[in-house]
Amino acid sequence: MPTYQYRCEKCGEMIEHTEHLAEHETAHPPCPKCGSEKVQHTPTPFVAKTPRKS
Question: Domain residue spans in the chain?
Answer without folding.
Answer: 3-42
